[in-house]
Specification:
Elements (H helix, E strand, L loop, with lengths): L1 H28 L5 H13 L5 H25 L2 H7 L7 H14 L2 H5 L7 H10 L4 H26 L3 H7 L2 H26 L1
């Protein structure tokens, strides 16, 4: 983790805002890039005075927006057959796709809003939205709002932690990440149930 953090820090130091944009766009489409670590690192660089808060947030948001839009377009115009055939290239197995399809069908557009906070879900939730022919304005309202909240959250974490951000990244075990994802799923379930109870 320490080596990965150093590599991301070096990349962002060299490429700055363009690096943030490209890494997040590719990561959300499906490239094996630790998106949260990129955002947290960007927040740390704001803390150090190397990056501007406004431009960093704008780069992160637009990169996330472009990535999630590409995933939506792939789902809408290509569909699931291409993923079943070539998904193994980006580590998407049939079982995982089936499980996420069922998950999306249950939570629908809310998966776009909160799926960013669950590893392996954000890019596939947009893909599922595309295959289900979710209208573009609805997709944009939920997915782009989620992109803004998610990117700002992790940039803020890196900024607030300051010099401690690498220590936290190194000491987050796999079980800690699992626990955080479980908490996120529970929060989503509670929010969706609250919305349904308000409608009835």
């Amino acid at each position: 983790m320490e080596m990965l953090s150093a590599e991301i820090l070096s990349w962002l130091t060299h490429y700055g805002y363009l690096g943030i944009f490209c890494l997040l766009m590719l990561g959300i489409v499906g490239a094996p890039i630790p998106d949260e670590l990129v955002l947290t690192c960007a927040g740390y660089m704001i803390f150090k005075g190397y990056l501007s808060p406004g431009l960093t947030a704008a780069s992160a948001f637009t990169g996330s927006l472009c990535g999630i839009s590409v995933s939506y377009a792939l789902g809408r115009f290509i569909g699931t057959p291409i993923i079943y055939r070539y998904g193994h290239i980006v580590n998407i197995k049939h079982e995982r796709l089936d499980a996420l399809t069922a998950w999306y069908e249950r939570f629908g557009k809310w998966a776009l809003l909160f799926g960013y906070f669950i590893a392996g879900v954000r890019h596939l939730s947009a893909f599922m939205a595309g295959t289900s022919r979710l209208r573009l304005p609805v997709f944009a309202a939920f997915a782009y709002t989620g992109a803004f909240i998610w990117s700002l959250t992790f940039i803020s974490i890196g900024y607030i932690l300051g010099e401690e951000w690498t220590w936290v990244a190194e000491h987050l075990t796999a079980w800690t990440w699992v626990s955080l994802m479980a908490i996120g799923v529970i929060a989503i379930l509670l929010f969706v149930r609250l919305q349904k109870s308000r409608r009835t």
